[in-house]
Amino acid sequence: MKSTVINTHKEMTAFSDFPPPGHFQNHMHNSQIKQYLYMYAENFDLLSHIRYKHEVVNVSKADNYNETGRWKVTFKILEQQEILEEIFDGVMLCSGHHSLKTPDAFKGLKVLVIGIGNSGVDADVELSNVAEQVYLSTRRGAWVFT
Question: Is 24 within 8 Å of 32 (Cβ atoms)?
């Protein structure tokens, strides 16, 4: 989300072999996190391994998983609508508050955000700019300072 700022210090969030630039904020905005991740990928030549406009259809153990620990990934190349399979040594599933989203789909709606963790409050703030009403549900009480 546009307003998301990481809640841990940059040195605690960074990869041990690649510290963030000194001029980055101590609690980095998501745009700096994105830039840092790109710099890391560029530095370690990971960009050539990233495939855009692909959709993962299925992840399963390879036929020889017990011997190799490898995984079979079925994916679709979206531009050609072609489905392929490939075997990988490892699989990492990633999602989270660093994916930049907009709240536009909630314009004029009443919205319930469940959870008062940092991402929940970030979502609440973003939604409050477009939604008719935003409710924040918590398991226990909490203090919110604005």
Answer: yes
pTM over 0.70: no
Q: Which long-range contacts (CB under 8 A, 24 or more apart) does 112-119 make?
A: 112/137, 113/137, 116/142, 116/144, 118/7, 119/4
Summarize pLDDT for 79-138 with one digit per residue, the tens: 999 999 999 999 877 655 555 778 888 899 999 988 888 778 888 888 999 999 999 888
Spatial CB neighbours of 39, under 8 Å, sequence gap ≥ 6: 18, 21
In DSSP terms, 82 is beta-bridged to 77
- Report the DSSP pairing between strands 71-77 and 82-88: antiparallel
**Strand pairing report for 82-88 and 110-114:** unpaired
